[in-house]
Amino acid sequence: MTKINILLADDHAIVRAGIRKTIEEIPEIECVNEVGNGPQVFSALSENHIDCLLIDVTMPDFDPISAIRKIRILYSELKILIV
Fold first, then answer.
1. How confident is the model at residue 8 (pLDDT cuts 50, 70, 90)?
2. Cβ 7 vs Cβ 53: under 8 Å
3. pLDDT value for 7
4. 5-12 mean pLDDT
5. What is the pLDDT, as a whole number, of residue 73?
6. C-alpha gyration radius of the chain
7. Sheet harboring 29-35: ordered strands across?
8. How many CB atoms lie within 10 A of CB 24?
9. Residue range 10-51, pLDDT digits in tens
């Protein structure tokens, strides 16, 4: 069975920890990285194989509309879940 690799992007460490804990209980899903601001999102996407981006739209240094448009262009197969 292929695992789904998730990138968590949220500026609140407690929120990320809670989401990660929930994800770890699902055998088919793996949280491969966590980031806390907009620039880190792009860096993590380029460094890891990510199937799904779970992203908070109110992070520092992050314009959600333009960033998500750019992500869609660069990673067209990526699923995005917005929090």
1. very high
2. yes
3. 98
4. 96
5. 96
6. 12
7. 29-35, 4-9, 52-55, 79-82
8. 11
9. 999 999 999 999 999 999 999 999 999 999 999 999 999 999
Contacts of 59 (CB under 8 A, 6+ apart): 9, 10, 11, 36, 37, 38, 41
CA distance 19 to 2: 21
Q: Quote the pTM value.
A: 0.91
Place of tokens 């990285």: 33
Phi, psi (rounded to 5 degrees) for 42: -65, -40
- Most distant CA pair in the chain, distance: 37
Separation of alpha carbons 34 and 17, rounded Å? 9
Separation in Å, CA 59 to CA 25, 26, 41, 49, 53? 26, 26, 10, 22, 14
* Calpha distance 75→69 (Å, rounded): 10
Residue with tokens 């292929």: 2
